[in-house]
Amino acid sequence: MATPDSLALFTGLGLSEHKARETLKNAALSTQLREAATQAQQTLGSTIDKATGTLLYGLASRLRDTRRLSFLVSYIASKKIHTEPQLSAALEYVRSHPLDPIDTMDFEQECGVGVIVTPEQIEEAVEATINRHRAQILVERYRFNMGLLMGEARAALKWADGKMIKHEVDMQVLHLLGPKMEADLEKKPKVAKARLEETDQGTAKDVVENGEASGQTLSLMEQLRGEALKFHKPGENYKTPGYVTTPHTMDLLKQHLEITGGQVRTRFPPEPNGILHIGHAKAINFNFGYAKANNGICFLRFDDTNPEKEEEKFFTAIYDMVTWLGYTPYKVTYASDYFDQLYAWAVELIHRGQAYVCHQRGEELKGHNPLPSPWRDRPLEESLLLFEAMRKGKFSEGEATLRMKLVMEDGKMDPVAYRVKYTPHHRTGDKWCIYPTYDYTHCLCDSIEHITHSLCTKEFQARRSSYFWLCNALDVYCPVQWEYGRLNLHYAVVSKRKILQLVAAGAVRDWDDPRLFTLTALQRRGFPPEAINNFCARVGVTVAQTTMEPHLLEACVRDVLNDTAPRAMAVLESLQVVITNFPAAKPLDIQVPNFPADETKGFHQVPFAPIVFIERTDFKEEPEPGYKRLAWGQPVGLRHTGYVIELQHVVKDPSGCVKRLEVTCRRADSGEKPKAFIHWVSQPLMCEIRLYERLFHHKNPEDPAEVPGGFLSDLNPASLQVVEEALVDCSVALAKPFDKFQFERLGYFSVDPDSRQGQLVFNRTVTLKEDPGKV
Q1: How many domains are there within the chain?
Q2: According to a count of CB atoms within 10 Å of the terminal CB, is the N or C end of the chain lower?
Q3: Which positions, given as ranges, span the membrane (predicted)?
Q4: pLDDT tens digit string along 383-411?
């Protein structure tokens, strides 16, 4: 609540009452401003003028290191810092020099303390600037970009008052051009921005905003090169807000730069206990993309600290998916590579009084307010002996843990660093029966690999304090952790536990079932890796969690497949058609373009014989108004053949179902053009085609408010339709798993790994157009 004293203090600085009240709503800002204003009043012994008040407000709102507040206030109150450029320089100086003591002589020189810029100097600098652009100013008059003059004059006079420069620019321009005329007051016509034709990863498409698409986008590579992210430079970790410094920080950063040469280093650190999903694709693109955009390197590091949950198939699948997306790790590492060093550091942590062996059980540590450990203050020597006993296997699982002495952002006290597990490790075998936790391992592995930017999703923000604390507690290089929002999709479940439930319930076949949004499932369904990368680029990198519609991902897939998937023809529900006046004694070879919009990409041949097969839905004995395909008295064209067929006879089985059609044919150019051309196959291959729909009915199947019965009750029974006797033209006979085609008029399809010689299986990747009902 705003008190009269606080309001009076803030309005006394020159703030409007409205701004003063808004400031009081921000507890951190108002506390810092109150402290700055109080100190300034004590120094001045009088009221604070508006110019000084403006600088104090700028200081309070922009200063991150509150230890330096008093130091900077003294310079502002004494008028040694009296302009905005000086304040900006001072803030940058303390940010770049985090350790005490501050070299006051160097500080004052860098901040222009004592430098006086006279009105004559300002007049001369502005005159010189205007003379450089005089000809253009005389042509464009008041439409000239006056900000350019301001910028150049300020660059020439770094410590000059900006208001004085602007006043002098206005005066000299008025003297040169005279008062504004009517033509000067007309609005400048807008110039259309040139369309961005291409990005690093293809044609610029729509940007995703609030789950919808609009405008254009840059590739993620372009975003990361540009202004989307303003990360610290390698070695300037201390400039990151919240980064904790110690007396050793600058020396450690100097050593870090000597080792890395100032190279950007990132890492993608998955746990090998499940399959990567669409959210991981964003993480892969971000970590590898940021490193690549800055000529750096990215490690693929497996966080293999839970041996009971890890399987070799997960290691392989994760590596395969990273490379499938087009990224090559600088090096593949494992947390287990560093188990010896991590253990040695744990011992050192005990020696420093920062860790202890605890015997509280797991259930005692659960909940929001667990009881403090009664063993927190046990003697160091006792913890050292007990930790060694843990390593030698003298405790059962859950009987003892090593805990660190700190409180995390979420209030969690003394997180566990090591626990006992009698499970052989896939790489170290039976060497260890104690394993480090994520909270202990993650930051130290980052330190060992000299990671410059530790990028992770928002849920790890609560662990940032332990990240900095542990590195500093051991006096080792401390990287910077930066959190970004997760990427989620509607109509999807991606948690490992829930996917296992789906598999156990028989709702899906395995992790790579094409109805899931794991990366192996998307690969099997036929999603090109470029499309997934483009989708991640459209989503971009934000701090907020993003939940997208699947149709936006599918739009990216269509964009890629339209240019890369050769055309073929297939029939799902076939109807035999006999051409009674076929124009040749033997089948004709028809040349079909692989890409009708670009015939330079080649052709393939398909046979055209007296017997062809069409979709059963492309014929109706009694068509409704607007029906344009084959019917009595309504001929139809056969795509690519140059022929039109006309119905002569309908043959039915005893039940009245149409068995085959008998037709005659004529050249398409010999008469009236038909209303439609349909696809067909002749002398086809039989194949299996799997058609996929959404696995869940509701957008948020895990939301109890939306699906009270749980996600397993929300399954769509029509999510998979198998057409076992579909027909496809012979041009695909030699197709291999994951080869992709556009089946004309049906959609995009990919060859499934279940395919065998002579027994092709296709998965429908996406339809040709989005179903309006899904959007």
Answers
A1: 5
A2: N
A3: none
A4: 999 999 999 999 999 999 999 999 877 77
Please answer whether residues 526 and 734 qualify as being in contact, where contact means their C-beta atoms are separated by less than 8 angstroms: no
397 assigned to active site: no
DSSP assignment of 356-399 equals EEE---GGGG-SSSPPPPTTTT--HHHHHHHHHHHHTT-S-TTS
User: 486, 616, 628, 699: which is the annotated catalytic residue?
Assistant: 486
User: 19, 496, 616, 620: which one is catalytic?
Assistant: 496
Residue % of the chain over a pLDDT of 90: 73
Residues 479, 531: one domain? no
Residues sharing a CB contact under 8 Å with residue 721, sequence separation 6 or more, in sequence order = 690, 691, 693
Query: How far is the C-alpha of 551 from the C-alpha of 770, rounded, in Å?
Result: 7
486 is catalytic: yes
Q: Catalytic pick from 271, 646, 688, 770?
A: 271
Residue-level pLDDT at 96: 85
Please report which confidence band the pLDDT of residue 28 belongs to, taking 50, 70 and 90 as the band edges.
confident
With contact defined as beta carbons under 8 Å apart, do 590 and 607 qualify? Answer: yes
Q: What is the mean pLDDT of the chain?
A: 90
Q: Which residues form the domain of 133?
A: 119-185
Instruction: Judge if the upstream peptide bond of residue 119 is cis by omega within 30 degrees of 0.
Output: no
Tell me the pLDDT band of 193, cut-offs 50, 70 and 90.
very low
Residue 31: which H helix or E strand, with range? helix 27-44
Residue 265, H or E segment: strand 265-268
The model's pLDDT over 677-690, given as tens digits with 9 standing for 90+, comes to: 999 999 999 999 99
Q: Does 633 lie in the same domain as 523?
A: no
| Of 298 and 13, more confident | 298
